[in-house]
Write a structure and sequence with these properties.
By secondary structure, the chain is of the alpha+beta class. The chain folds into three domains: 193 residues, no CATH class; 106 residues, no CATH class; 39 residues, no CATH class. Helix content is 43%, strand content 15%. The chain is built from 13 helices and twelve strands. The protein has a five-stranded antiparallel sheet with strand order 1-2-6-7-8, with no helix packed on it. It has a three-stranded antiparallel sheet with strand order 5-4-9. A hairpin with a 2-residue loop joins β6 and β7. α3 packs parallel to α9. It is elongated and about 105 Å long.
Length: 416
């Protein structure tokens, strides 16, 4: 039989890409920069660009849509999927699950405390929300502070969100290394230890964009247009409510008479009436509300565009809104987008934090995986009944995690 050759060398790397231009070579080092033309054009650097995208959260529609997406994720229960059926893997899953349940209260002595774990946030949900910011910036970071319990187990005593502007990526020998910018080394940065930082990227196309591709590049212009439109809209409303007064006076009017007339025009908004000599005239120019209505429609369009980018749907500002079928479709789309984001964050935690905890404490075990429960329990139970009719059985532990109801060990459910 002919031996098949295989290659263990990575050929398509960032360094040899003829199209990727986000590299800064200094000395024998290659710093990777954002491969985002909009970000570089508007901000000029990765750090300023991230700050530019984070500033988009000051828009009420952007913040509301992001908060809706992340809150929907955090409202779902989380569960663990075992990595294997062997005893080591089962114990590892029980240990990891206990660590995650007590993420806010673990210290190295094993006692409950008010230890600050995630700055301004609470437990696993806070970590999910912070890593979810990568949806806007393209990348997010969290630092793991490790400690050892009295029983000798190594656990994360703190997980703290970190400012993405403080990190750079450096390429060397076809590998990408993470570096932290410090006060003593603000340009070159320092290399960080392994298993120290959780790095979550969003929508890294083809792997050639090491900083991910955040939605900030799609939201930037709708937000800027909203600011300009809102300024014009308020100006028109102001002109309509307080029209411009125009006065004419005779050619032979004395300067002091003209000055008095100007004062009267200036104060016309505060006067109930005004008297003028013969030959003096006054008229008002008011902006029509037709323009304000057009600008209002454009503002609504911008909000709709923002919602579609983030949530994948918009149930407002479009014809046909309000029907049951339409609302069902938009809810399904939003749920699908939330689940996709949740799964990507879970996969990051599976590859990093969970893998590290198991490696430190149960090196012979296969790491479990964490997921959020997006499936409707009633629909799933209906599917289980159908599977029962085909001769399938369902794992008892999975059924308990699905329903949240502990099953009686002495009584087997008819559909298991």
């Amino acid at each position: 039989m002919r031996n098949r050759r295989f290659s263990n060398v990575e050929l398509s790397t960032i360094e040899n890409s003829p199209w990727y231009s986000g590299q800064l070579v200094y000395g024998n080092k290659v710093r990777l920069t954002q491969n985002d033309r909009l970000l570089l054009e508007k901000a000029g650097s990765t750090s300023k660009g991230i700050e530019l995208y984070l500033d988009l959260l000051t828009d009420n529609q952007v913040f509301a849509a992001f908060d809706k997406q992340l809150s929907e994720i955090c409202s779902k229960d989380w569960y663990f999927e075992p990595g294997g059926e062997d005893e080591h893997s089962k114990k590892a899953m029980e240990f990891v699950e206990e660590v995650f349940k007590n993420l806010c209260y673990f210290d190295i002595s094993g006692n409950e405390t008010n230890l600050e774990v995630i700055s301004g946030s609470v437990g696993l949900d806070g970590l999910f929300k912070h890593l979810g910011i990568a949806m806007l910036t393209g990348i997010s970071y969290a630092e793991v502070i490790w400690g050892r319990t009295t029983s000798g187990k190594i656990i994360p005593t703190s997980i703290k969100p970190r400012d993405p502007k403080r990190f750079i990526l450096e390429s060397k020998d076809s590998k990408v290394y993470l570096k932290l910018l410090t006060r003593n080394n603000p340009f070159d940065g320092i290399y960080v230890p392994s298993n120290k930082f959780i790095v979550h990227r969003f929508f890294a196309v083809g792997g050639d964009d090491p900083y991910g591709m955040g939605m900030g590049r799609f939201l930037y212009y709708p937000v800027q247009w909203k600011k300009q439109l809102l300024t014009l809209w308020l100006t028109i409303i102001d002109r309509h409510a307080d029209p411009t007064a125009i006065g004419t006076f005779p050619r032979d009017a004395e300067p002091d008479e003209v000055a008095a007339f100007d004062d009267a025009i200036t104060n016309i908004a505060r006067e109930m009436s005004i008297s003028m000599k013969e030959g003096y005239k006054m008229e008002f120019i008011s902006s029509g509300l037709q323009n304000a209505e057009a600008l209002s429609n454009l503002l609504a369009w911008c909000d709709t565009a923002i919602s579609k980018v983030i949530l994948g749907e918009s149930s407002t500002s479009e014809p046909g809104g309000g029907s049951y079928a339409r609302e069902s479709i938009t809810n399904d789309i939003r749920k699908m987008k939330a689940k996709a984001l949740s799964d990507s964050i879970c996969e990051t935690l599976n590859q990093t934090l969970i893998n590290w905890i198991v490696k430190y404490n149960y090196p012979l075990a296969k790491p479990p995986k964490i997921w959020r429960q997006f499936e409707d329990s009633y629909e799933t139970l209906g599917l289980i009944r159908q599977l029962k009719g085909l001769g399938y059985t369902v794992n008892r532990e999975y059924l308990e995690s699905l329903t949240g109801i502990p099953l009686d060990e002495n009584q087997k459910p008819t559909f298991v």
